[in-house]
Amino acid sequence: DIQMTQSPSTLSASVGDRVTITCRASQSINTWLAWYQVKPGKPPKVLIYKTSTLETGVPSRFSGSGSGTEFTLTINSLQPDDFATYYCQQYSAPPWTFGQGTKAEVK
Amino acid sequence: QLQLQESGPGLVKPSETLSLTCTVSSGSISSGTYLWGWVRQPPGTGLEWIGSTYYSGSTYYNPSLKSRVTISIDPSKNQFFLSLNSVTAADTAVYYCARLTVSRYFEYWGQGILVTVSS
């Protein structure tokens, strides 16, 4: 299985901050990576797929980059609605696997 | 917009079988080359893919659960199903059904259903 490791596990930030979450794969996954946002009591929402393509309707303050084994999700100018938990997911090869999550909390 | 809705018992006894249904609306389960799947999230932990099925009935399972999981589909009812046998407390989780795109990320999700394994 391809292991996905996210860092940090928790980040404390303020509205307006630029935040970056890193996701590392245990082997190359090319650019087959998606990012999801999860809020309590809600299903995951896909933000980005194929490393850097924004899902329709996702604000442009979200961006993704990387290839191979190292990837980043960046949120420019963090908004109140962005405090949530973020997961990366590789879909290079089954079993499809997720990172352990990064919780963005209010500083 | 495609909608998915999970249904089934919220409480299952240890050693018994967990059975869930996902009903798809505003779209056909038989269209395209999508996969239909199940993902779970135990309390306080991350997401785990359980398995997926094509509308044809071909299935793919997470090796970690393969011995206990069966996923099936009924295109005539626009539904697919999850069966997980010999459950323990470790199977307590929110279970989501989802549609995977052709490239295999999870595009549409149900709201999720909490299933607790307890006597």
Give a short overview.
The complex is a heterodimer of chains A (107) and B (119). Chain A has 107 residues and is an all-beta fold.
Give a count of the beta strands of chain B, DSSP E runs of length 2 or more. 11
Sketch the major β-sheet of chain B: 7 strands, mixed
Count of discrete alpha- or pi-helical segments spanning 4 or more residues of chain A: 0
Structural class of chain A: mainly beta
Helix content of chain A: under 10%
Largest interface: A-B, 23 and 22 residues
What is the terminal-to-terminal distance of chain B? 39 Å
Provide a descriptive summary of the structure in words.
The complex is a heterodimer of chains A (107) and B (119). Chain A has 107 residues and is mainly β. Helix content of chain A is 0%, strand content 50%. Chain A is built from no helices and eleven strands. In chain A, strands 2, 4, 5, 6, 9, 10 and 11 form a seven-stranded mixed beta sheet that branches. Chain A has a four-stranded antiparallel beta sheet with strand order 1-3-8-7, with no helix packed on it. With 119 residues, chain B is an all-beta fold. In chain B, strands 2, 4, 5, 6, 9, 10 and 11 form a seven-stranded mixed beta sheet that branches. Chain B has a four-stranded antiparallel beta sheet with strand order 1-3-8-7, with no helix packed on it. Chains A and B meet through β4, β5 and β10 of A and β10 of B.
